[in-house]
Structure formats: C-alpha cells, structure tokens
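Form 7-S
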Amino acid sequence: PNLACKSLEHYPQSKAYQQCRAFQKYRNTQIDKSITFLRENTFKCSIDCFKKCYQSLVNIQKSIINFLGGLYSNTRKGFYRQYIRIKRSVTSIVGTTKENAKENFDASVQKVNDLIEEFKREKDKFFGSRNALKPDQQQELEALVRQLLVEYSADETGQADYALEANGGKVVDTRCTEYTDEPRQHVVKFLGIPIVHMSKQPDIMIKAGRMPGQCFPFKGDQGSVIIKLAVPVKPTEFVLEHLSKSISVVGHINSAPNNFTVY
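Output:
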C-alpha cells in the first residue's frame, strides 16, 4: 500500500524504502495486466457469444423457412389435386347434363311431332277430303277458338263475375252463421304489437282463388250469406267454384258445398 511507504519517504536511500517502492511498482504492473487480460477476454467472450447467438438465429430462420416452404408446397399440391378432381367431376356432370338435356329435348320434340301427326290423321279421318275446310273458313275457325279460350281463361266461365270483391262485390251479412276460425288464432305481430289479423273472414268467398284453404269455414252443415253485387243486374245463372277433386290432397272434396239456394 502507498501508506506503508509514506513513513519511509524521509529515508529515500534506505533499503526498506527501495523495496517498498519496488513492491508498489510490481503490484501496479500486475493490476494493469489483470485489467488488460480481463478486458481482452471479456470482449472475446462477448464476440464469441454474439456469434453463437447469431448463428443460432440464422439456423432457426432457415428451419422456419424450410418448414413454411414445405407446408406451402404440400398445400399447393393438395389444392391442385382438389382442383383437378373437381374439374373432372364438373366436366363429367356437364357432359352428362348436356346429353340428358339433348335426349329429353329430342324426345319432347318427337312427342310433339307425333301428336301433330296424330291430330292431322284424326282431322283427315273426321272431315275427309270432301269436307275439308277452305283457307278462309280455317282462319275464321281458329279466330273463334282463340276468342273462346281467352274468354274462358279470364274466369273459366266466359262470363263476368258481378259478386267478385275486386269488381266491387261486398259481403253484407252472414246472418246467424257461426265462424270456426277465431280472429286471434292468426295474428302478425311486430315487437309484440298486433299488426294484421290473418283470420278467414266471410269476404274470402268472393275473392279470386279456389286453392286449398281459400274458403270460409263455419260450424255445422248449413250457412247463409248476403252479398251485394257490384252493379244492379238481372241474374240468369249462378256458378259456385270450389277446389277441384283432381288436386285435392285427401282425394275428395266432401267439405265443398253440395247444394245452394239463391233468393
């Protein structure tokens, strides 16, 4: 220590002072060497550790790239195989559909041609060559048939419907007929508030349509209704429409009116 030699500074020529100074120099030299050694080794170790860490990161990056590359390649191959399979299936389905459509179209055309030929044969058989219509008579007959078809398709009766609600008809009263469809059974609500009552009211009888459910249900086997016609007329005939038996899901129309009286 420096303090150990301080008491001998008054005797610089003494052997003890000289040995003390020599020890101090040796000690300082060793300390400097140790510090230098530690600095060099610490820097070297840091460089080595950094290189190892960097190399590890590079290896991890290569591994991730290789893994993702393999995954992408396998996924792409899988998608391509699925694409080829779907393309073949679609091609097969389209081809089959085209063939079936062509066959059905050809069969339909052939059936129509057969019907036309059969109609021609029946016409020739019925009229014969002697009773064949002249061109102007043929045109007049076709025009008459078209007119009758148009009138029939309007209401399937060929006559105006004066009781139809759309034309101005109105149900005035149902007398004592008791309903079976309660108004509260079919209600359209919005946020819990009733908006429209879907009950079958008597005026459904004079609305267009005769499909299942388009009727006025009432209790018992007899009912009555008063209808106001659209305009004053003198009725000469009456028609009551109901569901056709041919399209009834139960095979019968027992609920349709069997007899009705107008007065």
